[in-house]
Design goal:
- The chain has about 190 residues and is of the alpha+beta class.
- The chain has one domain.
- It has five helices and ten strands.
- Helix 1 packs antiparallel against helix 3.
- The two termini are about 20 Å apart.
Amino acid sequence: MSQPGTASGPSPQAKLVMSALFCDVGLEGELIRALEGEFGGVDLVSERLPFDHTRYYEREMGRPLHRRVLSFRDLVTADSLVEAKLKAQALEARFGRPGGQRRVNLDPALLGLHNFVLATHKGYAHRIYLGKGVYGDLALIYRDGGFRPLEWTYPDYASAPMVDLLDQIRAVLVWQRRGSRGGKRDAP
């Protein structure tokens, strides 16, 4: 019998996590409804977190920038990250300004038992090409009871508040997977 995640077994299930950066807080309600319409119900919406790790997005979106992190209720397969990135990009365009400037930046990611992988269109040595112009960026690994950053992890994803939030989402994933396996334990 094949094990989950092997070449002949099913793709491991993960939590789809979406980070939304924005300046206009008036967009939040409509944005969350649009995300739920595209990806299904959410089981976590973080509080509004200040985004001050870089000024990269300020010229396009304004300031002060805020982040909300959403976790979606339904588990997804690990091979769904490409489509999630393309759908997120379409939503960015839908919420954009007439000149094409974004009012929101959406970063989909997959949170699994052992790692947190962001979707990006930018290739780099540590990013794996997944298809359709999308790369998987291994941002965090789960070790010693918590998510740990790597040398290339963006500072905001390596920050204690973000890691704590992702650890909470992982606990929900463990609970969901345990329930779907008839009470069998998942690996820590």
